[in-house]
Amino acid sequence: MIPIAYTLASLAAYYLMSTALPVREIWVYQILFLFVPAVTAIRRFIPEPKRLLSITKPFIGPFLRIFGLALAVSLSLNLLIPLWDHFFPVPYALRDQIHKILYTDSPLGMLRMIFTVGLFPAICEETLFRGYLQTALKEQLGLWKAIAATSLLFALSHLNPWLFPFYFLLGLFLGWCRNYRNNLYLPILAHWVNNTIALVVFQLM
Questions:
Q1: 165 vs 149: CA distance, rounded Å
Q2: In-domain check, residue 59
Q3: H/E/C letters for each residue in the chain?
Q4: Distance, CA of 169 to CA of 151 (rounded, Å)
Q5: Is residue 58 part of a domain?
Q6: Fewer CB within 10 Å, N side or C side of the chain?
Q7: Separation of first and last alpha carbons in the chain
């Protein structure tokens, strides 16, 4: 399918570039190779692309509900990870790599990461996966198959088979958020909440 092939090409470019020319500010590559291709595809192939950024009233209630649900889902998933890790431990090399990316010993560093590791990836990944891929697949497969297929590719894209079930479950939740009010704001909010929770839990462990 063209949407899946396009998404895979975007991900391949992102990982190849970030591997060939590694930089600390990885969100720069996410914008260049995830966000920009996603926006280009949305404008070119998605009917009425402006609807993805529309907010239907009332909007305060849905935002608060998604925020609360995202807190519950993210806390549940992140608190289950240590138990899962007991049976399917992440290799030390990957664990050390994650530690270098996520660890900070200052409040200012934590605030910075809430945006660079939390918000920017949420915007870029949601624009690609829920904005473009899920929307395009929905026309071909129907809603729930599109959510499942997008969640599968979303989980695989993190290149962490040890935590694959958690990424897949998170993807299902984000796919539902995308469909809840038919815009991108809610899955971005939920994704940002999850990333922030993961950062906080990581610092406390």
A1: 14
A2: no
A3: CHHHHHHHHHHHHHHHHHHHCCCCCCHHHHHHHHHHHHHHHHHHHCCCHHHHHCCCCCCHHHHHHHHHHHHHHHHHHHHHHHHHHHHCCCCHHHHHHHHHHHCCCCHHHHHHHHHHHHHHHHHHHHHHHHHHHHHHHHHHHCHHHHHHHHHHHHHHHCCCHHHHHHHHHHHHHHHHHHHHCCCCHHHHHHHHHHHHHHHHHHHHC
A4: 8
A5: no
A6: C
A7: 42
Residue 167: inside a domain: yes
Kindly give the confidence (pLDDT) of every residue in the chain, 205 residues in length, as a single tens digit, with 9 standing for 90 and above.
799 999 999 999 999 998 888 877 888 999 999 999 999 999 999 988 888 888 777 789 999 999 999 999 999 998 899 889 888 898 888 888 777 777 777 888 888 889 988 999 999 999 999 999 999 999 899 999 999 999 999 999 999 999 999 999 999 999 999 999 999 999 999 999 999 999 888 877 6
> Does a structural domain hold residue 57?
no
What's the structural domain count of the chain? 1
Range of the domain at 16: 2-51+64-204
pTM of structure: 0.94
Hunting for tokens 């664990």 — which residue is that? Answer: 95
Residues in the chain: 205
